## 1
Amino acid sequence: MKITVVGTGYVGLVTGTCFAETGNEVTCVDIDVNKVKKLSEGQITIYEPGLEKLFERNLKEDRLFFTTSLEEGIKDAEVIFLALPTPPGADGAADLSYVLNVADHLGKIMTDYKVIVDKSTVPVGTAEKVTAAIAKNCKAPFDVVSNPEFLREGVAVDDFMKPDRVVIGTQSERARKVMGDLYAPFVRQGNPILFMDEKSAELTKYAANSFLATKISFMNEIAILCEKLGADVDMVRRGIGSDERIGKRFLFPGIGYGGSCFPKDVQALVKSSEDVNYNFKILNAVMEVNETQKLFLLPKIKAYFNNNLKGKHFALWGLAFKPNTDDIREAPALYIINALLEEGATVSAFDPEAMKNVRQVVGDKITYAEHQYTCLENADALIIATEWSVFRTPDFNKISAALKNKAIFDGRNLFETGRMKELGYHYESVGRTP
Ligand code: UGA
């Protein structure tokens, strides 16, 4: 099948590459001339494990193309995916201007039947708006489909190639057939393609992310309670997670969720609810809990240093909002850095992938270590903000040799509390008695 993907950001590039991998001919369109040049020359523009290999192969085998021209990009295409940014506007609602501008342009240049697919996370009612924007100028027949993505950064290729489910919102038989054929190779193991109306598909995406965010904020509050009551959140997590109705996954407490999706999508669903005069009470609480959770470790750190962090130096392991990505959007580490600097402390940070991005935002307000152990030199304590695998079984001898105090504040519960006690550390984590 010939496919066009408009927008070569994270979702667009993964989508385009993975569709090429199943034999489709994919043209990706982007207005960013530099990006298109880089991608055409074989330089990948995002960090995502496993993507580069597929990208290089499909480029070499002439199944993946890049262009800045929408006209050229959609020629002969049967399906056009819109993978454009939908940033939060000033009022928290998703800004649809990128999506609607492209829809408007498409309407002017389409000459034969095409399926236009909303892949970006868009509020309920967007398929209708996209349809209207295209129809304004278009003589050719077309269908607009909502097909939200459920990719996780860091495992996006796997999520795309083996999805738990594919959600397709359309009431057109013709579009349903095209989309069903396109996704058939991805659901061979029997996972469902769920066909539904456009609005339900659009809401499914927000409901999924908001529910997952709710699980996290819920567990973060349970963790707070565990500390107050002297219980251990790891035990409670296992205790509740083995109930299949609750499930084992996504119950890990920590220093809050970050990234480009959960914060934005929860906020957008709250806004959508307000727009129809409904106050989504649970989600407001989810956001509030998450805001305070990002600085959960701060009072513990302050208490250890007698409420005075002036002149103290901290080693910080982990900057990305989660492991296996260089993404620092809404990363709890950034909040911690700001809070420590405000208290008059200094920070040396290490992250396997995200230091370049942090340097662009934080600049030389902190120092950047080349290695996780050099990061510790002269530090008064170690703070852990991201659960990268390389931090999970560190050399504790090296840690204690470098730190001025044997103190670790762990926002991701990487170590056994009993073991840390044996090793003589002052170890504080989330929801467990030190
Ligand atoms: C999330 C969803 O998981 C994807 O299904 C969705 O497609 C994507 O948003 C999106 O809308 O594009 P992502 O933001 O990449 O994916 O990251 P997750 O792995 O879901 O983690 C989100 C945040 O939750 C991270 O900050 C992570 O540290 C935190 N988290 C996750 C916890 O604090 N505890 C957990 O148990 C799990």
Note: The chain has three domains: 2-196, 205-293, 297-428.
## 2
Amino acid sequence: MALAGSAIGLGNIWRFPYMVGQHGGAAFIIIYILCSIIIALPVFFAESLLGKTTGSDTIGALKKTVPDSPLMAEGGLAVLAAFVIVSFYSVVGGWSFDYFIRSCTGSFQGLQITEASQTFKAMTDSVWQPLGSLAVFLSLSGIIVAAGVDKGIGLFSKVMMPVLFIMILLIVIRSVSLPGASAGIEYLVKPDFSKIDGRAIADALGQSFFSLSLGVGCVLTYSSYMRKEENVFYSGIWTAIFDTVFAVLAGFAIMPAVFAAGLPAAAGPSLVYETLPVIFSQMGPVVPFLFFLAILIAALTSSISMMEVCVAWMVDQKKFRRGTATLCICCLAFILGCACALFPKVFNTCDFLTSNVFMMIGSFVFVIVVAWKLPKVDVRTQFTNYGTSKAAKVAFPVVWFSIKWLCPIAIVAIAITNLL
Ligand code: PHE
């Protein structure tokens, strides 16, 4: 549940639907699912294996597996990347907190599209409002992380993930039953491959990495807390299934409503904060409340996983106490988060650097270490839980081929496409 919580986040509810909108609907969803199965899932297995077998934080895991190799530097980069992501991600998390409060006070009732755009602009342009929401969001994440891996992160994820699924299902039911919703449903199920180009494929692959939280040590750190009998293969498969089902459900919660209201599907990043409040405001006070609460919970379960990467490093390597480490990370993330909230350039640079550079380098190093530095027999033994998992045994040759060849090639290819 915690791994699913890390994976399911703003990437699913905010990024995925607008990318589907920009890249022509169903065809993009199909490409996304293929990328997740063929490339992202094997990267997940590699990162998870490193965490489970070493039982260490990101830096510790690389110290144990590739000591004296320059690849070890990736450990530091991953912690830095997790820190940078948590800083700008919490800014968007803060917006969802702000919108959640507005939905509680009923301020979306009767909203028009121009007012919605003004509300969003006024919020992001103001100085104190985003900083206040950022502080609240970071504090909420900090409280959960400081409470510990079992009593904080584990408990929060176990309780909140089912709640999240129920909420999104309720919104889907409401959205698809609106008059005029069928055009939106058709958009999500009828593929138009003419919209698919190199950019769309690179975006689908990049989105699958972002959505599964790959390359920044979140999967590695959470997997280091797995029990021996737990299986990297099954946890990976379930995380990918939950994550993809949730992203598609978010698409069905949003697109039919957008089409029913006759608003543009390709609105881009503003879809969730400008277009949706207008549509949901026409559905009574409950739908916006449920939707922004869902975004807030999803954002929290992801931000705690990034914070945990940094906290685990401070606790394991620097011998800080958990509470002190969490407080330090929250304060530092608040400083960088303020810069992201106030200067769009800083926000965009952090977003670009982490998704297009750091996550790619991290994923590349994790697959190289597992497939090219560790003995194949050891990887097979760990992957199949000492030969006890039949399904993992059957899947191993395919997974191994992907980790060894397909993943490194695909990562280099998207990195080049993204940087061009
Ligand atoms: N997977 C998260 C989402 O979809 C984002 C994330 C990225 C979380 C990297 C952790 C690490 O929103």
Note: The pocket of phenylalanine is lined by residues 6-7, 9-12, 85, 210-211, 213, 216, 218, 302, 305-306 (CB under 6 Å).
